[in-house]
Here is the input.
Amino acid sequence: MAKILHIWSLSKSFPGQVALQDATFDVEEGEVHALVGQNGSGKSTLIKVLAGFHQPDPGHNVTMNDEVFNIGSVEAAHRAGIRFVHQDLGLVEAVSAVENLALGFGYRTGFGRRINWKKETLKTKQALLDLGFDIDVRVPVAALGGAARTGVAIARALQESEQNISILVLDEPTASLPGADVDRLFNAIRRLKARGIAVVFVSHHLEEVFEIADRVTVLRDAKVVATVEASELDMSSLIELIVGRKVTAATVNRSIDQSLEPRLRVTDLWGPGMNDVSLEVRPGEVLGVAGLTGSGRDTLIPMLSGAIERLGDVSIDGVTIRAGKPNAAIAAGLAFVPADRLRNGIISMMSVRSNTTIANVARNKTGMRLNHKKERAETQDWISQLSVVTTSSEAPISTLSGGNQQKVMMARSFRLDPKVLLLDEPTQGVDIGAKEEIHSFVDAAAANGSAVVIASTDSAELARLCDRVIVMHRGQIVDTIVRGGGSMAQSIDKVLLAGSSLANN
Amino acid sequence: MSTIESEVLAAPKRSLLNRLGLDRFSALYLWGAFMIIFGLWKPDTFLSMTSVKLVLGENVSTGILALAFLVPFCAATFDLSIGAVMSMSVVTMCFLSDEKSRSFNMPVGVAAVITLVVCTLIGVISGFIVVKLKVNSFIATLGLGQVISAIVLKISFNRQITDVYSDTFEKFGRNQYFGIPVVFFYLAVAGIIIWYVLEHTPVGRFIYATGGNPEAARLAGVKTDRMVWGSLIASSFLAGVAGIVFSAKVGLFTAATGPNYLFPAIAAVFFGASQLKGRPNVAGTFIALYALAFGIKGLQLVVGTDSYWVNPMFQGTTLIIAVSLASQKGIARMKKRKVKTA
Here is the structure.
């Protein structure tokens, strides 16, 4: 296939750091090209230079369709037919898809500058149908599902003179999408490919790379390590390229004393999307929860932790905890890490220290006074224990990368020395290095005697961590997979697929 | 892993603006500028002990009212009823301890205690509306403030009430110690208490956490409802204190007493929030309060007799300029963050 974009020796340095060094990168006509690497590896910089947000250092050589391409300028990228959809999508949530598209291009007006809504609606509907989304384009974007929202953002990026557009760049399009929505998005990407548009996409989910990408470019420490055909790679070789060393996933070797009383006992749990669920977790046991979005997998932990209301009895070591009261649950020995880190986890204006200690501030009190010195020392301890990358315990948590913020969330929970630890999507949006570290903290918590429950859409993660995995469907437990005897991840996926085909019937 | 990130964080490029701290200390610079400009312009009046004392004393009620606004503001909750609560406090004091009418004729101490109870109850009500009825605090306290203003007008018949208090009570408001008006010490004590609670106790941490991300704070075990409710009670109580201090110092009631103090108090908190720590805080509030107060005094001296318009003009413009400077800083910080995520 013909190469349309060709970049040689592209560098970008910021005061005090080199964010991208001597990168070589090319895009072929109509291919799906994955861009992978850990946080800070330079992939966002590459995209931002391409989009014209950043000026590259001099010395590069870039051609687009065999003509010199003035990289680092928004207009040049636009004129060359490169379009971008960023992770936050940039949609106006309160208005409809039609208006979101019109905002980008301007309303077509009829007599008296009246907006021709009929025409606009039809146009939007068609654009989304072309991407495989048959949705109501008149409802507010906020009411649409994750994939459909991404679809609207893509449609907006692609509108107007389409014959011109040759490359669409998607920055982490699947970061916040549940499994089924990822499939719909990939369907859209395949349709784009069929139209001859090359798609460059950034992702942390490596299995997606194998599913959709034709070629993969790996970045590490600001350099392009390799560009390879996806078919020539397997998971472990790709991870090795990304991390720069062999990652050996530790195998779980826990022995759970079955004679011990369960630490966590849930009886007849009812609530939104939850239909009479009972379960028990013993000290030192890690229970996984699998299931599609809406199956109950996503509401189980919020219900147990008191984030949302519930009916039914939840007890820790025989003591019942009140529903809908996170503070009561924490007091009873429960700790949890919520799924949506930015919305429900971090308090972004506060420091790493305040974020670490917020669930039990009183520990560092001398008399009535908060002992800041003691608190700082304790936080410093956690920072080094969990190897959190931060300038100090006083830095605002918003200056940390996603993986490091998540480690602070783990520290917040661990320092409570919980009897029951609940983790909701603990490694979502976290790079591989941090992911493996977070997994080893879970092992440590179990070894410490905590009863651990992990809800995750990542079957491999569940297989890596759990002694037992329950699969949920329509608010009920439809299967339990126990460690031992064959690949756990495969068994989980099999049940999940069976469940979704059930749902389709 | 991310060694690149740590390098960015370790070596931030410090601009001139940053090094001088023009953003975080702008109120101090402003204060200094006022002292120099008006000191040179009106050396004999502006720099005299009398006018310094006057400014220190005159702004005590505003300062206490600013603290009242500050506490819920740290929990991202607005209390706009505090102006009305302050007039409620002043009118209740007049009414209960009125020696001329002999209607209640209570000792001033008892009157003050009852006044504080009344004001605290108003805080309980506004907390109820915000926490239990889930009305946005801005709307709830704006509405409640109107209702209280109505009650104040009904009680006072919209008349000025003067010549109410005994000399002993007024001593509490007019004496001087070490050449400083006694009321200034009240402000200092109130400020120290609030500063201690906000910066050095778990409750302060919880209040700021509630203000930073209420849902995340709640999920981390913070009783956010209690923080919001409690901070509204504290603000009404402090507004009551501001009214009592005003009564002791000025000794009369007019319907405009409370509401006129609301804007300067809010201005000090907003301006102060951009100072020192980049979040609402006591020290920043006080610095902003007195920077503005000295500026106004200077301008009044320069303008002379018809300076009645100076106050709102000055408060308004400085607030807008100060907050716009702070958001420039916010923009700069966002740019820095963008570099980091690269």
